Amino acid sequence: MPGRLEVIELPDTAAVAERVAARLLSARRRHPGRPLGLATGRTMLPVYAEMARLLALLPAEEQERLRRSWLSFSLDEYVGLAPSDPRSFHGVIQAHLIGPLGLDPAGVRLPAGLTADPVAEAQRYAADLAAAGGIGLQVLGLGLNGHVGFNEPPCGPEAACRCVELSDVTRFQNAEAFGGDPRAVPTRAITLGLAEILAADRILLVVTGAAKAPVLRRVLESPPTPDIPASWLQRHPAVSVIADGPALGRGD
Ligand code: GLP
């Protein structure tokens, strides 16, 4: 039955960032044995900035405990980019999460994009996540074509961690980091699948801005379909959609 997803509407991106950052930090504090699942992308940048601010407000010993015990698995990485490349998701996570929060990089896991064998790397990453017991709280952004992670349509709920071809829509959406040229965006990526995402204990789908309103509406109202990968979230028992007014079509 469509329309079962819980929707939390907040006025603007700042309020969304505050709510999501607080949920992520609280998950690390309350369930230290359960890894976070992290997204990369513009939606998440204010969230990570807010996490750094909230972390700094905690007592010094608590901050240190969180830094040392950190464990997160990012959803995805472009194939062919070195971790030192600022356009890679490693680069983004280093600049916006590891650096500002002062995290031990050993606990911040991503697939390796610079690899001769991305198929084997996807299997290694899936095994690393499985050995850690799977994701506790998973945070997701939403692609303009309904993707989560890099699970491009069409995509069923059993799709597991793998190497994928990126769609033209996604390369266009992510061109900003590549000098505005969609052709400069890598053609392949390694992504956790809907299988690993739907196995998380809890999921937050974070959506901001009027540009996402049409696709978010389809995620909320369409029956689950491979054409809108995020629509499979309706099958998970503990999903919250955290969105600002414009993303819910309330006008900017
Ligand atoms: C990207 C990434 C996702 C991200 C989503 C939304 O392509 N693969 O991890 O959450 O699409 O991106 P943005 O937040 O920049 O709109």
Could you walk me through the main structural features you see in this protein, from its secondary elements to its overall organization?
- The longest helix has 18 residues.
- With 252 residues, the protein is an alpha/beta fold.
- 35% of the residues lie in helices and 16% in strands.
- It contains 8 helices and 10 strands.
- It is globular, with a radius of gyration of 17 Å.
- The chain has one domain: Rossmann fold (3-Layer(aba) Sandwich).
- The strands form 3 sheets. Strands 1-10-9-6 form a 4-stranded parallel β-sheet, with helices on one face.
- 2-amino-2-deoxy-6-O-phosphono-alpha-D-glucopyranose binds next to loops.
Break the fold down into its secondary structure elements and pairings.
Layout: E1 6-10, H1 13-30, E2 36-38, H2 45-56, H3 60-69, E3 72-74, E4 76-78, H4 89-101, E5 108-109, H5 118-131, E6 137-140, E7 162-165, H6 168-173, E8 188-191, H7 194-198, E9 202-207, H8 213-221, E10 239-244
Parallel strand pairs: 1-10, 2-3, 3-5, 6-9, 9-10
Antiparallel strand pairs: 4-8, 7-8
Helix pairs in contact: 1-2, 2-4
Bound molecules: 2-amino-2-deoxy-6-O-phosphono-alpha-D-glucopyranose.
